[in-house]
Amino acid sequence: MPTAVRCSVCPHDCPSTCALEVEVLDGARIGRVHGATRLQECVAQALAWGCADPAAVRYLLTAETLDHPPPVAVDVGALAAYDRPQPSLHAYDQLLAGGGPEGRP
Known about the structure:
By secondary structure, the protein is of the alpha+beta class. It contains 3 helices and 3 strands, in the order βββααα. Helix 1 crosses helix 2.
């Protein structure tokens, strides 16, 4: 069985809870323990993409072991055609008072 690298935390009982990378041998034994440089790189990459979701960091950590190609970035510029102005609270107050958006009954 190949060596796998997994994310873990330091077992010491201190408040900092340091992140570690641990080599797992044969699916059960712990090999070398490394600092969390790869984890820090993945967090930095996710933040550079404008994403602060832990699932994105987890994906980046495991992306090289996945069988399918990484997702392709989609241009969201075409969605601008669907942008509409947000209604104001004044317009809602007029509707609740029985008048239309322009004050018509």
